[in-house]
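hiii, so i know i said id send this last week but things got crazy w the move. better late than never?? heres the sequnce for the chain we talked about at the cafe, plus the structure i predicted for it. fair warning i was half asleep when i ran it
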Amino acid sequence: MNRSENTAMDLRMMNGLALVLFAIFVGSVLVAATRWVSNRSVFALNNITVLGDVTHANVPTVRAHVVSRVTGSFFSVDLARTRTVLEAMPWVRHAVVHRDFPNKLRVQLQEHQVAAYWGDSNEPRLLNTFGEVFDANVGEVEVDDLPHLNGPLAQSATVLAAYHALAPQFSAMDLTVDSLELTNQGSWRVGLNGGAVIEAGRGDLEQVQTRVGHFLKTLTRVLARYQRPAGALESADLRHENGYAIRLRGVSTLAAVAPTP
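okay and structure toks below
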């Protein structure tokens, strides 16, 4: 390789190195400029707009919760972390966060809508309309006469669906379902407003509905036979293969009653 070729290669290397250094310089300037701009007071977050049908997560509470846990300016604030912070609030089910130039955040919230109490009656949790269990102050619940549901946590949506299916069957006889439980053994237990407990047995929802339907269809005749109102029902066991056992106030009977086809 002659001297001229070596010189040309050296020039190319120097040009390449100069380009790399220039790119690094430009990148550093851009980073510094971005930081400088993002730290200007005009871009400091100073307002949070809260949208959505919110009752418990009021605007001042949301703002205080975010401000105390989220840092950064309009450009640097972590929207994913902000969403996580919001969804950790007791009544917030879902949050969507957007930037509003130059210094605002816009928050769209969806609150939990309570459908029932869940779990241990001494320390109940709450169940929303999606069948999801969540924790919040039960003293803030504004709905009266919520049912109390229980069962394996993974089956909470199934238990809620069963309540919505079974409650109308009982209400047709002026009986109100106060509680519904899916036991660990897979059996359904219904509690009525008068204190009666109905052991509805195992099976999927369709099977349980059919079993309860047969029971209620014949219960009217049984009540008439003993001249008792529906409120006299104390307990019923529907787990018998060919009928059910029933107990009425003022009547001593545990005999299995065969349902009418």
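btw The mean pLDDT is 86. thought thatd interest u
miss u guys!!
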